[in-house]
Amino acid sequence: MNIICVHQSADMYGSDRSFLQVVNYLSLSPSFEKITVILPRNGPLVNELEKLKVEIIFMDLSLLSKTYLLKLQWGKIIFPLFSFSSKKKLFDQYDVVYVNTSVILDFYLLAPFLKQMKIIHIREIPNGILSKVLSFFLKCSKAKIIFNSQSTLNSFSPLAQSLVIHNAFEGFAKIEQQESIPVDSKNELRSLANGNPTTGIEREEVASEINALKKEALKILLIGRINSWKGQDFAIEALAEMPDAPVLLRIVGSTSAGNEDMVLDLKKKVNQLGLSDKVEFMDFVSDTAEVYSWSDVAIVPSTKPEPFGRIAIEAMSLSKPVIAANHGGLPEIIEHGQSGFLFEPSNKTDFIHAISKYIADPDLLREHGENAKKVYEEKFSLLGFYKKLDEAFNLN
Predict the structure, then answer these.
(1) Separation of alpha carbons 249 and 240, rounded Å
(2) Which alpha helices (H) appear in the chain, and where do they start and end?
(3) DSSP, residue by residue, 175-243
(4) Could you confirm whether domain 217-379 is CATH 3.40.50.2000?
(5) CA angle 210–211–213, rounded 5-degree value
(6) Distance CA 384, CA 64 (A)
(7) CATH of domain 2-168+381-392
(8) With CB atoms counted within 10 Å of each terminal CB, which end of the chain scores lower, N or C?
(9) pLDDT per residue as tens digits for the range 226-243
C-alpha cells in the first residue's frame, strides 16, 4: 500500500513528535511500500523525517490557526483551499490518507471525494461552537477517527468509527543523570574558574563555592511551546507567593511565529517579581533528554485542558514525578498521590501545596518518581502503541 500523511507543523513539539512516531511505525511496517509526508513548511521535523527515508512535499495548507484568526489573516486560511483539484489529484495516488490533526481544513473539503481509507488523528480539544463544527466535518468525512485520550473524544459529538489510542513515548537514549546547577550559578563558577586556581588551597576554595551553589533547591521543569494557556505565567506568579522556598524553575520553549512578545513579557514579569534568581529561560531544544534529566519534577500547569499531555510521559520515563492541572488527558496519565500530584486548574494555592510536599519530603519525591517510571513502562510504551495502530490501520 501507499500512504500519504499530512501534518500542520514542522517543529518538534509534542504533536510533532507524536506524528513522527506514527511515520516511524509506518516505515517499519511491510504493508506500506511508499510513504509521503505533506508539511506546510520546513523545520526541525524535516531532519527527523529524512532519516526515515520518506518522501516530503511542502504544500500550502489551510490551517485553522488561532494566530491567523486573531490577526485577521483570513487569506492564509482561504487561499490554500483554491488548490483543491491539484491536491485531490495527488491524494488519489494513495491507498491510505492519514491526517494528524483536526485543524487542516483541506482534508474536510477533500474527504467526501476520497474513496480510499481515511484516518484522522485528533490531538486537540476544541471549545463550544468549534467542537460542533469540527464534529460535523468529521462526520461528513466518513474517516476513521483516532483520539489521543478519552478526554479528547468526550469533547466532540458522538462519532462512528472512533477509538482512543493514548500517545506513547519511545524513551530517551541512555544518558548519565548528572547533578546540574542553575545557569546563573554556572556563570558564577566560570568567574571563579577564570582565576585559574593552581594551589590545593585555591582549588578547595573553588570546590567549596561549587558545593554552596549546589544547595538543595527543588528543580522544576516547565517545557513546551510558550503561549497564553500553557501556564508559564501561572507558574511564575505562584513562585512569587513562596519567596522563601528553595526552588528553581526552568522554562524551556519558544513561541509560534508572531508571538515573540510573550517571552519578553514573561521575562519582564520575572524581573518585576524579583524572581531572577529562581526562574531561568531556555529556547526550544530538539534533544530534551538532558533538560528532563536536570529536573527533579516536571509541571504541566495548563490553564486549558491538555488533549493528552505528552510532556508528562516523557518526564515519567526518566523517573520524574509530574505536578499537573487536573483536566484534559492528564488525569488519564497521572495517579494523584502516587506518580505525582493533580491540582485544581489555575488554583495557585493547590499548586503551591503540591510543590511544598516535595520540598518537605525528598523521599516522597523519589518514591513518586519510581512509581512514575513503572506507569510509563506499563501504559505508555511504544510496543503497545504500535499494536493499537495495527488495529486502526487494519493490519492485524
Answers:
(1) 11
(2) 14-28, 44-51, 66-70, 74-78, 84-91, 105-110, 128-141, 150-154, 183-193, 200-213, 232-240, 261-272, 289-294, 310-317, 348-360, 362-379, 382-392
(3) --------HHHHHHHHHHHTT---SHHHHHHHHHHHHHHT---EEEEEES---SSSSHHHHHHHHHT-T
(4) yes
(5) 65
(6) 32
(7) 3.40.50.2000
(8) C
(9) 999 999 999 999 999 999
Vertex 137: Cα angle to 134 and 139 (nearest 5):
110
Length of the chain: 396
State the sign of the Cα–Cα–Cα–Cα dihedral 155, 161, 163, 169: negative
| Secondary structure letter of residue 273 according to DSSP | T
Q: How confident is the model at residue 201 (pLDDT cuts 50, 70, 90)?
A: low
Tell me the pTM.
0.80
Q: How far apart are the first and last CA of the chain?
A: 15
Which neighbouring-strand residues pair with 322?
Answer: 298, 340
Q: Which residues pair with 219 in a beta bridge?
A: 248
The CA distances from residue 352 to 274, 316, 363, 364, in Å, are: 18, 21, 18, 16
Lowest-confidence region among 82-96, 212-226, 324-338, 373-387 = 212-226
What is the arithmetic mean of pLDDT over 162-174?
89
Domain(s) of CATH 3.40.50.2000: residues in the chain: 2-168+381-392, 217-379
Tell me what pLDDT residue 184 has: 43
